[in-house]
């Protein structure tokens, strides 16, 4: 509802300045188009290489799109850091799930142990910030292995491939945004002197 306090009527929230609104719209378009490209690559190109089932192709598209959204950040450097985080967490999950599913079927205790191990391994290799992502990836891989138990050991490989596609598209989009941005990202020296420009949108320059 509109507020009637004070002289005249006013909205209960303030719209951002036009420059910020325009940047937000542009960022949303970048995210949307990147997700579209990622989904198409995962469900069409990758599916032509290897396709266990239509349902698995759709899951691959979902997982790849999630990776793209995860990578797209407000600056290119942050996008690169997010990409390293996503790939690192996925590799931890990949190794654990591949070894487990190569010998054992899905089991609730297996889910509990591997999810916990994913976070532990991420912490032990010096990346505790990736523990949650690694645990989520392991959970997805194992539950999908329960739903599709035939050749379940392939699931870690397929999800790694989906992640690589999503991360690659996300980084490519972030790089293009940086290249086409009107202003370069503020340097560390400029930021320290307080002369850096306003924050940009996802991977903005």
Description:
Helix 3 packs antiparallel against helix 6. The two termini are 38 Å apart. It is globular and about 55 Å long. The N terminus is likely disordered. Helix content is 69%, strand content 0%. The chain has one domain. It has seven helices and no strands. It is mostly helical and 205 residues long.
| Biggest sheet features | none
> In terms of per-residue confidence, which ranges show pLDDT below 50 for 5 or more consecutive residues?
1-6
What is the average per-residue confidence, as pLDDT, rounded to a whole number? 84
Beta-strand residue percentage: under 5%
Gyration radius from CA atoms, angstroms: 21 Å
The number of strands is 0
- Integer tally of domains: 1
Along the chain, the helix and strand elements come as HHHHHHH
Distance between the termini: 38 Å
Helix content: 55-70%
Q: Please, how many helices?
A: 7
Secondary-structure blueprint:
Blueprint (H helix, E strand, L loop, with lengths): L17 H32 L4 H18 L4 H26 L6 H17 L6 H17 L6 H27 L7 H5 L13
Helix pairs in contact: 1-2, 1-6, 2-6, 3-4, 3-5, 3-6, 4-5
In short:
The chain is mainly alpha-helical and 205 residues long. 69% of the residues lie in helices and 0% in strands. The protein is built from seven helices and no strands.
List keywords for this structure.
205 residues; 7 helices; disordered N terminus; single chain; mainly alpha
